[in-house]
Specification:
- This protein is 40% helix and 21% strand.
- It is built from 13 helices and 15 strands.
- Strands 1, 2, 3, 4, 5, 6, 7, 8 and 9 form a nine-stranded mixed beta sheet that branches.
- Helix 5 (185-195) crosses helix 10, helix 7 (241-250) packs antiparallel against helix 8 (256-275) and helix 8 (256-275) crosses helix 9 (294-301).
- The protein is elongated.
- The relative contact order is 0.12.
- The model has no long low-confidence stretch (mean pLDDT 94).
- It binds adenosine-5'-triphosphate and magnesium ion (MG).
- Residues 179-181, 183-186, 203-205, 264, 282-285, 288-289, 291-292, 339-341 line the site of adenosine-5'-triphosphate.
Amino acid sequence: MVKHILIHYSEIGLKGGNRDFFEKKLICNIQMALGDFDVRIKNIFGRLLLTGEWQDETEVSEKLSRVFGIAYFSFAYLVRSDLESIKKESLRLLKNRDFKTFAVRARRGTKNFPLKSLEIEREVGGYIFESLGDKKVNLKNPDITCHIEIVNDYVFIYFDKIKGPGGLPVGTAGKLVSLISGGFDSPVASWQMMRRGAEIIFVHFHSYPNTSKGSLEKVRELVKILSHYQFGAKLYLVPFLDIQKEIFANAPEKLRIVLYRRMMLRLAEAIAQKEKALGLVTGDNLGQVASQTLENMLAIGAAVSLPIYRPLVSWDKEEIINLAKKIGTHDISAEPFDDCCSLFAPRHPETRADLKEVGGAEKNLNIKEIVEKTIGEIEIRDIGY
Ligand code: ATP
Ligand code: MG
């Protein structure tokens, strides 16, 4: 049987001249998300009508709830556009449901229906009340709400509004390169930028074989989860051990972390140039660890000229953890892993790095050569969703 889903998007509606571009991308992304299902999607007056066949509502629902740009959606019944049909269908659908109190909510997306929203609510509500006898109207806190939405010649009836992830369709903002570790923060930061429309290219630095294969696997799993939100992902695996050895041997101990981070950014910037990405993303969070003071973020960021987006900079840890749970990265991030930066970590890392001092320390490093050598050793993984 052919079924319908009515999809509402919010912010795209504000995009003026670009509206068409955003809507097309959203439709394309929904189709990617529902790849296995045979669906058609049509734009009707600022909403999307998805028509198709499926058995498992939960699976469709889960997939749609990962499509950025969707404000909410509903499994809806399409009925004839006259009051009698609306009354009869509402009653028929409600008869199959278990509830004691109900409300009818009508909304007209276009104004060509002869009755106003309030009149429709009264007419349909009264009819249901009289027909069912034992059910009460409760407008404040009903067990069930019968939504009637009229859009031109279409009339939809639905009962549940399922929240989408909001944001803007992924891919509408261009590309960013995100530095992803195995921790909690960087996967959440990447997700946040995806939610605003950016397509994320992932870069991970590892010290294999001094750090384990399991740690690499963990990052791959994190990217796999995130790939569901942008329908695939590219992961650059960058060997970092030689760079760390060079810094260990030739730079002051307390500056090691700042110097590691500057090298990471330089390599990420080189990848961004190759990928035509417009900026970098990190999971930095003000004050969380020694490398994340304002002084250190300044000294680290100065190594590159691309903008660095740090969507979590002002968040509390608890907020980050809660979002990690919601998007599905928490449990993987919680597993133990060996971070490349804990290798040769200084006993007393600098918390207020001075850019001049950092620049001086880098004069003793063979930066150009090791960057070039490292770029030649990068591995690229395509992660399917
Ligand atoms: P996370 O939870 O993301 O690991 P964190 O709070 O532990 O972050 P740091 O370990 O200081 O903070 O790292 C700061 C940021 O630097 C990370 O959020 C990430 O963007 C980047 N980063 C750190 N280590 C790596 C790595 N091995 N590969 C790629 N990026 C990294
Ligand atoms: Mg970390």
